[in-house]
Amino acid sequence: MSSSQEELLGRLRTGFNSGKTRSLEFRLSQLQALKRLLDENRQAINEALAQDLHKPGFEAEVSEISFLITEINVALNNLKTWMKDEHVEKNWATKLNSAFIRKDPFGVVLIIGAWNYPIQLLLNPLVGAIGAGNCAILKPSELSKSTEKLVSNLLPRYLDQECFAVVCGGPQEISQLLENKFDYIFFTGNASVGKIIMAAASKHLTPVTLELGGKNPCFVDNGCNPKNIANRLAWVRFFNAGQTCVAPDYVLCTWQMREQLLSALKETLETFYGKEPQQSSDFGRIINDRHFQRVKALLQSGSVAIGGQSDKSDKYIAPTVLVDVQESDPVMQEEIFGPILPILTVESPEEAIAFINRQEKPLAFYAFSPDSKVIDAMLDRTSSGGFCGNDGMMHMTLPSLPFGGIGHSGMGNYHGKFSFNTFSHHRAVLLRSPGLEKLNTLRYPPYTKSNLGLLLCATEVKQKGMCTLL
Hints:
The protein is α/β, with parallel strands linked by helices. It has 15 helices and 18 strands. It has helices at residues 3-17, 24-40, 42-53, 57-83, 120-131, 145-158, 171-178, 191-202, 226-238, 255-273, 289-297, 349-358, 372-380, 417-422, 449-459, and strands spanning 86-87, 98-105, 108-112, 135-139, 164-166, 184-188, 208-211, 216-220, 248-253, 303-306, 310-311, 316-317, 320-323, 340-345, 364-368, 386-389, 410-411, 424-431. The chain has a seven-stranded mixed β-sheet with strand order 10-13-14-9-8-15-16, sandwiched between helices. Helix 2 (24-40) packs antiparallel against helix 4 (57-83), helix 3 (42-53) crosses helix 4 (57-83) and helix 4 (57-83) runs parallel beside helix 5 (120-131). The chain is globular, with a radius of gyration of 26 Å.
């Protein structure tokens, strides 16, 4: 670890140990400051996102700025309640005592953001970290250079520098940071790096939340309105040029539905982005040359039914739909993270369920059907981090729902109160009287059968409240 990092961590550790982050007033003040950062720098944030990802202002507002302000407002509105001790049921042995759960901060936490939503995915976990009373080091992605620079300049101007800091750099800086013992690590990124983060955390027994990704399936049933499905699918798949962890990574449908869907998608994409999507101000770009080459190579899978054009100098790949794709094709072996939508054919919902269950558990699963029984079957017989019926990505707009993966797509969750819980240690507390010692004699030697019966009656949970004396 570099000396500058040691100094930084020491400063934050001192800030946390001072106890200043524990008060409700401090937490609210820092959340308000974070909200001002967003409000007062909207134009700069939009410009940075446009430079990094050619992100349309509409998408920047919806998925980055407004999304975060909502999360902050939810925390501001509810933090006092969230922080309260949670009193729990007691047994007969502890009826005269106080038993509750205290929501303690972990301490100094590390938050590692991602480049595809470089403001939201860095600052959203910070809302939970602040609300729970932690100090935090933020590591923005070095791939989104403009937003990395912007955050590193802005954050110290708004948040308490004794408690919050930004560390810039690439893999070397992350490796150096991970040598240190943090009290919690929150990482957003891909599974391969997630394994590195988890391995490093394990050396210090540091708890982690891993927000990863994967291949999110989308089933489209016969009988759906092709135009409605095309609108919703195209929006969620090509939002942010497909660089979204919850975007549908492939579609499963019958051959008949595929033909209807293709016709509708062609019409929808022209409505959304015009005849020349590269000229549209509403369509983004691939983050860098390396990812451009990776995504372009995936165009070789199956056959191009819509789109397929690319321009390396502009890091542009057209909104593309692939057909005749096989399960073994390269486009089905990794998360696409680009504007490509493969369509695979199945004969029935049963076959779709079997296909999905052969894959790693995804971050999201989308099922479209006019039949609620089909939606219920998809929900009941599969596993995913989140599920949305008859739409895509909209489940993320509810702070009342947890967001997170399962298995290969991650562990842990956040958003709303779930963010507060993620960054809080739920501490078990029982406060007993220093007197009343007579009540404790049942558990002390010399042991007797009658005392055992009374003790078990006082402490065991019975199915129907029955107490059996031995």
